[in-house]
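SEQUENCE-TO-STRUCTURE ENTRY
===========================
What this section holds: a protein sequence and its matching fold, both as plain text.
Tokens: labelled as protein backbone structure tokens, with as many entries as the chain has residues.
Question of interest: how does this chain fold, as expressed in backbone structure tokens?
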Amino acid sequence: MSITRDEAVALLEQYIKNEKMRDHCYATEAVMRALARRLGRDEDKWGIAGLLHDLDAELVNADLNVHGLETARILEEKGIDPDMIDAIKMHNEQASGAPRSLEFHHALAAGETVTGLIIATTLVYPDKKLSGVKTKSVTKRMKEKAFAASVNREIIRECEKIGLPLDEFVTICLEAMRGISNTLKL
């Protein structure tokens, strides 16, 4: 069974109360839709997976030993597409107990991770607006390990496993996030 975007947003609002976490999910949805367009994949499937990927973050208190598994349970009970559930589980390899192996897995993991680096880069700009951020600024920050230290650069580099060089990947993701800058208030 498929899930509509409206149903996915209702789920997000039911399970995620923190506004910044919701914004992260909306950013990930935008990124995943853009990646799906670029790679010729199902935009709704990829976008909704991005929107719901952190559905259990507050339920499990972001415990990486179980994060993603509760989301999978919730979505399985609703009869959601198993490919979406699999990609959501696999965005956190620690809980899934297996390495990412499919394009969808790598896209979601890299896509949701790069949103943090893009937002952190945006917040050091004087106007704190996505419109002023350049791809080069984000890729330069990739090399600065102390900057947004919690952002795993190796996961972002999984973009290469879906056939996108880092510069192109960051450009796609940055443009996608600019498209929802009002939602993100950036």
In short: The chain has one domain: 5-175. The chain is about 60% helix and 0% strand. Residues 5-175 form a domain with the Hypothetical protein af1432 fold (CATH 1.10.3210). The CA atoms of residues 158 and 164 lie 9 Å apart.
